[in-house]
Amino acid sequence: MGDTSPIATSVPRSAAAFLPPDRGSLDALREASKCCEGCELHERATQTVFGEGTRQAEVVFVGEQPGDYEDQQGRPFVGPAGRLLDQALQAAGIDRNQVYVTNAVKHFKWIPRGKRRIHQKPNQREVSACKPWLEAEISAVKPKVVVALGATAAQSLLGSAFRVSQQRGQDVRSPLAPHVMATVHPSSILRAADDQTREVETELFIRDLRKIVPLLAE
């Protein structure tokens, strides 16, 4: 007789098991996220970096993941990319205090390089594992507009076929919100090769953000 014991299968890890019963409360979600072990990224991160902003926000901005500054402070978009986002929002006529900012992945993924911690892009498995938090945040806030910043956020929200380079600034149909659009992540602007390119890319970024304003007036 052959071995008839069941074949062991690995169950994909997910944040879903860590969500609280009260998923309509941002405070409850934020508190529960501190204990999340939905993927292995929690093992090396300093802390969970949950979203931040008012429950009444009409716009939700979604980035890729926290960076080094965010990992240390426990707040999203407080590093150089966050400062650029603040400046662009001001130029576009959007009050930063009236939006909600978060990331597709809530833990900092990094590799050591000397004394520095270098950002690593999260893989699809890690993005998928963290998606229950992102979906719960958007559901709790119920914004008019969701803006994906960069490819990782856009593909998490809109599918792997979505290309920011081809569809940036477009109003995309989605059950997430009445209006969903994608643009570049501000960190990509900071990586521009020279000041002139950085200036041009900043203006294009602001142009995309200005498209949000009339949507809020509907």
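Next protein, fold it too.
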Amino acid sequence: MTLTPHTPGAATRAHRWMRPAAVGLFTLAWSLGRPWSADASLLSPAAEDAMADFITWVVILVVPVVLIVLFWMVHVLPEKIAHKRHHPQLEAIKTLCLLSLVFGGLLWPIAWLWAYTKPVGYKLAYGTDKSADYFKEHGLPEPDSATVDIRERVALLEASGVPASELDAIRTDLALIEARLAKSTVRDGVS
């Protein structure tokens, strides 16, 4: 498809885009050739002073308070985690969190890890890995020590409405543990 030079639409289309382009180039050349005053700021000197005063007061008063609150919130986080997980050593974790605040956060990772650990040694010593609050919330009696009769606790679970399949699994595990305990006491000569 070729355009003939006598077509009236071709000339007007070329003029339509050439005129704005020429005006744009002229405006650009004029603005580059005109000397501009060099100002360091868009604000007046009085407004700059007022803004600097405001920023100074914010930095002096607000930023330290926000940083202290943020530091406190981060260092109390392991305590909140331990409370949510019903960790039996919650008081010790709280103490470690406070000591971490005193020592500038050096003990905080230890408190964080301790809050997430399962207290296996505590369970061996006291028969449970939950805090007293857990038993109060669920309406269960708090175990006094590892010497509490486990069969009594299973009977309480049965009364509280635990499904029979779970209770049968617990009773089977309990029978296996008692059998192993009986073998180890006979082997050690304890009757």
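About the second fold: The helical segments are 8-33, 45-84, 90-102, 108-116, 120-126, 132-138, 150-160, 164-187.
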